[in-house]
Amino acid sequence: MLCGRWRSRHRRHEEPPVPAQVAAPVALPSPPAPQDGGNKRPGLRALKKMGLTEDEDVRAMLRGSRLCKIRSRTWKKERLYRLQEDGLSVWFQRRIPRAPSQHIFFVQHIEAVREGHQSEGLRRFGGAFEPARCLTIAFKGRRKNLDLVAPTAEEAQRWVRGLAKLRARLDAMSQRERLDHWIHFYLHRADSNQDSKMSFKEIKNLLRMVNVDMNDMYAYRLFKECDRSNNEWLEGPEIEEFLRRLLKRPELEEIFHRYSGEDRVLSTSELLEFLEDQGEDGATLAHARQLIHTYELNETAKQHELMTLDGFMLYLLSPEGAALNLAHTCVFQDMNQPLAHYFISCSHNTYLTDSQIGGPSSTEAYVRAFAQGCRCVELDCWEGPGGEPVIYHGHTLTSKILFRDVIQAVRDHAFTLSPYPVILSLENHCGLEQQAAMARHLHTILGDMLVTQLLDSQNPEELPSPELKGRVLVKGKKLPAARNEDGRVLSDREEDNEDEDEEEEAGAAEQRRRAKQISPELSALAVYCCATRLRTLRSVLPQPCQVSSLSERKAKKLIREAGNSFIRHNACQLIRVYPLGLRMNSANYNPQEMWNAGCQLVALNFQTPGYEMDLNAGRFLINGRCGYVLKPACLRQPDTTFDPECPGTPRTTFTIQVLTAQQLPKLNAEKPNSIVDPLVRIEIHGVPADCACKETNYVLNNGFNPRWGQTLQFQLRAPELVLVRFVVEDYDATSPNDFVGQFTLPLSSLKQGYRHIHLLSKDGASLSPATLFVHICIQRS
């Protein structure tokens, strides 16, 4: 159970808020659009820092282009698009002006830029335009694609190339570069008359823009300390001095001085001592030298193998200093075990972009699922006109898409992010003729990608491993060998399992279930994933090539009543769990309960953000985000005694000290005086006995550099299954707290020591450079 998701906000009136303190962040949030609709253009400092001011493609984007935006056959509007001089956001025109933040999109939120008719929208509605003039900007999260047509092919190419350069440069930026980039953008915005001087009033505006409500007396004292000319203005070096003081990190300075001693630099041996205290694997003098060579900015210090405070801060803010084990961001697990030994990223109703009642269906939903590492997608197949099967949520108002278009999307996008095999979970409602058409499309479109026969004739009953790269498996009903001529078997519809009262005898339910024909052509494609109803957990011999689909209710019942037997079954055979049909708004269930029992294919509505999808993203964050994660040994052994309901006594103590946060995003960019009151909640998701959450106090009016210094501790019984979710919320005493950001990862991939947590949005997009700074200790008994 998550604590406090809908709890009363009056619970801590007796606790005094932590006062706002100025502990200096290292970076600033995404800039809003210019207040005058895009005409106010700050200096080119940001792009100069990116080294792109002389790039012809970027210069053309700065001038802007009139591009035709396409939504439908009749909605095609010309709009002005222009790169802002921060180099990280694009301003665009709207027919009806809206809030400034509604007139921009950010380069860091772009998932891909596609050329030509490479989106569903342009394929359907862009036929009148030559492909060379067309481009699609696909975004992370739920934002719809932007389908555009340029006046010329060259102008389209300028945007394609320019966005590619900006994205590449952004990915390569260090946290320190992001700091310099952001702070000077906001500095220009706060300089209301653009005279390169800052009055105290402008300084106060700057502070509000960056999400801190600083005491006037303290702010003025800081201002006057930097006003060397004593003229009530800051300019040139005075502004830089103010920024330097503002951006100090006292907590990092304290740690640095603890190890550096009086000379205020770290030698290789002193840095090695810090690394050993951090619990770094393989900490050696050679590794310390390598870190100095990589992160130290001062050439003299580098030549003498010394690290300054700046180099130390740069290291702690780098991926090597982050909470996520850098070695786990690549494929590091054994990928040669049977498929049943892995958690596999799985989507439910993949074709939907919204609710399952009236939401649109789209091939783009499959593209987005693959971009998130999904390896098992669902196709609800129904009879369509003209002999062509369609995909949609049957008996609802959801729109329909062609089966063949989805298979083309699988061919074109399934292996862009991950090379490991994809499973197509067919929910078949078609007659024999259109089933044959489905089989034909699978063959002709996928070609050699499609697995059509056993790959190991020596072991025909063994599942392949994920090393079956670039191949597509079909999950569907298989005709019994003795009944191929007759071709009558049960439907493979999930709902067949759910329509019945689950307490009824299987035999009675069987008699009422309508039989359905399965075509031999489609049956032949179910090679390793033969859909079968789970009747018992007491099978004498395991059937590795049989896959059962269970509703979340049925799976929970099995976990509760036959936990260990269910786990033993899942050690050998694949199980797919899906949400109850009663979830009309396409809400999700907690996937952790299913992973605790070794269920491999835990299907979620990828289009619905929430903590459930955060957990899914956290589970598959590691192992190169390839969509396959090796299950713990206790879930892979056929004779395991593990039971998630009885995991034993605590054997791991997890202690986390929440120290500070840096540059949390403003929740309302249109209200300068709206400052967050942040608190941090740590959630433990694992076996029921381990599930817990604890939170810090809130800090009043400071999203810029809040400080907590609070320690939270957890006792864990099954640490190998634990996911840790770091959540930042804006405290509200009278209503539910507002979500600010989160980050979720497996405990087994969490590094110890002083670490930065890089926060994500509700949709899983980066909130860079927003971070938490924590100290982590994991003690195993």
Automatic annotation (TrEMBL):
Q: Catalyses which reaction?
A: a 1,2-diacyl-sn-glycero-3-phospho-(1D-myo-inositol-4,5-bisphosphate) + H2O = 1D-myo-inositol 1,4,5-trisphosphate + a 1,2-diacyl-sn-glycerol + H(+)
Which Gene3D superfamilies does this UniProt record tie to the protein? C2 domain (2.60.40.150), EF-hand (1.10.238.10), Phosphatidylinositol (PI) phosphodiesterase (3.20.20.190), Pleckstrin-homology domain (PH domain)/Phosphotyrosine-binding domain (PTB) (2.30.29.30)
Q: Which domain of life is it from?
A: Eukaryota
Q: Which InterPro entries match?
A: C2_dom, C2_domain_sf, EF-hand-dom_pair, PH-like_dom_sf, PH_domain, PI-PLC_fam, PLC-delta3_EF-hand, PLC-like_Pdiesterase_TIM-brl
Pfam entry (one):
PI-PLC-Y
Q: What class of enzyme is it?
A: hydrolase
EC numbers on record = 3.1.4.11
SUPFAM superfamilies according to UniProt? C2 domain (Calcium/lipid-binding domain, CaLB) (SSF49562), EF-hand (SSF47473), PH domain-like (SSF50729), PLC-like phosphodiesterases (SSF51695)
Domain PI-PLC Y-box: residue ranges: 522-636
- Disordered: annotated segments: 1-44, 483-515
Q: Keywords in alphabetical order, please.
A: Hydrolase, Lipid degradation, Lipid metabolism, Transducer
Where is composition skewed (Acidic residues) in this entry?
493-507
Here the segments flagged for biased composition (Basic and acidic residues) are 483-492
Biased composition range(s): Basic residues: 1-12
The entry's protein name is: Phosphoinositide phospholipase C
